[in-house]
Amino acid sequence: xxxxxxxxALDMHAEAGSENxxxxxxxxxxxxxxxxxxxxxxxxxxxxxxxxxxxxxxxAEKPLYVRTPVPDWLIRAIAMALGLxxxxxxxxxxxxxxxxxxxxxxxxxxxQVFGDPFYRKGPNDQGIGWNVLASLGRVGIGFxxxxxxxxxxxFALGRFRFLSDMAAPVISLLRPVSPLAWLPIGLLVFKAAxxxxxxxxxxxxxxxxxxxxxxxxxxxxxxxxxxxxxxxxSEWKVFSKILFPATLPYMMTGVxxxxxxxxxxxxxxxxxxxxxxxxxxxxxxxxxxNVPHIIIAIFTVGIxxxxxxxxxxxxxxxxxxx
Length: 322
Known about the structure:
- This protein has 12 helices and no strands.
- By secondary structure, the chain is an all-alpha fold.
- It has a domain at 130-318: MetI-like (MetI-like fold, Orthogonal Bundle), CATH 1.10.3720.
- Helix 10 (235-273) packs parallel to helix 11 and helix 11 (278-287) runs antiparallel to helix 12 (291-318).
- The radius of gyration is 50 Å and the shape is flat.
């Protein structure tokens, strides 16, 4: 009885166990999944990143050819030599017409002229050296007188407005007059050629010094003059400590312009007055139809004028105020 009655119960319990153990469709399986293989290096702990290794930079390869910069003085020398060569070539082309001497003919004449530049064969027949010295003497006297009067006058005109307004119409009227227009006045007043030529140099070279010096004084900041008033400086102190140092560059510019004008004027004045001088020498050689000597005189005038300008530039650098 008992055995018969337990059998259905066991069968029901077995069916229920089989139903519980079987996986349902659409649901996750209750059995554990098969383990996936893991690499050995994944099981090890991660190593910290290595610090970057500082390597010495590789030495730059030495170039086979190193270009050295060309000095500036060499470039300028080459440029000037090229300019002179082109000038001589152009001169040679013009000389083919037959009116002008060739560069070689002029050079041969220059060797003869400067071979004995200080000969004397009479009052009107002297070497080119004596003529240049005579012209420089006249320029020195006329230019010196212009500097002695023009520079102080420029300081006064720049310092005092009333004086500047007084002199403005006179300067504006006389400055544009041609230098040779003053020569008859000089001959009339002085009754001689030499002082007349000096007078022409004086009247022609004074204007740049007056104007540039006055402009330099006006460019001084007003604060400097106000400080001078507060300190009650004398007029000499104002001139020596403020006006002169600040105006010196302008003044030297006027001096350079004036010496150039003076050297240009003397050649023209001596052509008209005669006597001993580079201008008279040029005119005398023209009367003799000696064209190579005229060209030599032109180059001589240019070289002397360049030398005078360079001397003034050196003086300006020597006496410049910072």
